[in-house]
Amino acid sequence: MNPASNSFRQALAPVLVIEDEPSVLAFISSALERNGYRVMQATTGSEGLRLLREHEFSGVISDMRTPGGINGADVHAWILANRPEMAARLLFTTGDTASEETAAILVKTGMPCLEKPFRVQQLVAAVEKIVGRTH
């Protein structure tokens, strides 16, 4: 890990991770923290939206499907309506890219998506791309 890039990442606002599977949430959070990012966690889409209303984030990683009636597409729509400066700093994750609904959402939003399972290197590379985006 490059100490200079690690310092830069620590200076950024945290990355919000919205993920309902405890093992996946722990994996993503640990991988990002080991690579110098600060992380805030939400286990439902509604909790993620609450955190988005209350805090600044350098990026958002959202599972496409979360319990509680608010999914990744809803998070994207909320960001577009309420935090448009963050619209390009969203990364979806999913274990369901074969679903027609998921494919349609990805096409409609144009947001990047990591298909589960993914490797730490893939995650970090994708996060580096989204946190560097400003619009």
Verbal overview:
The chain is built from 6 helices and 5 strands. It has 135 residues and is α/β, with parallel strands linked by helices. It has one domain (3-131): Rossmann fold. Strands 2-1-3-4-5 form a 5-stranded parallel β-sheet, sandwiched between helices. It starts with a helix and ends with a helix.
Low confidence ranges: none
Strand adjacency order, main sheet: 2-1-3-4-5
CATH topology: Rossmann fold
Q: What structural class do the secondary elements suggest?
A: alpha/beta
Helix content: 40-55%
Radius of gyration (CA) equals 14 Å
H and E string? HEHEHEHEHEH
Principal-axis shape equals: globular
Largest sheet: 5 strands, parallel
User: What is the tally of beta strands?
Assistant: 5
- Helix tally equals 6
Provide the descriptors you would attach to this structure in a database record:
single chain; 135 residues; alpha/beta; Rossmann fold; 5-stranded parallel beta sheet; 5 strands
Write the layout of secondary structure elements.
Layout (H helix, E strand, L loop, with lengths): L2 H9 L3 E4 L3 H13 L4 E4 L2 H10 L4 E5 L8 H11 L7 E5 L5 H10 L3 E3 L4 H12 L4
Parallel strand pairs: 1-2, 1-3, 3-4, 4-5
Helix pairs in contact: 3-4
Short description:
This protein is of the alpha/beta class and 135 residues long. 48% of the residues lie in helices and 16% in strands. It has a five-stranded parallel beta sheet, sandwiched between helices.
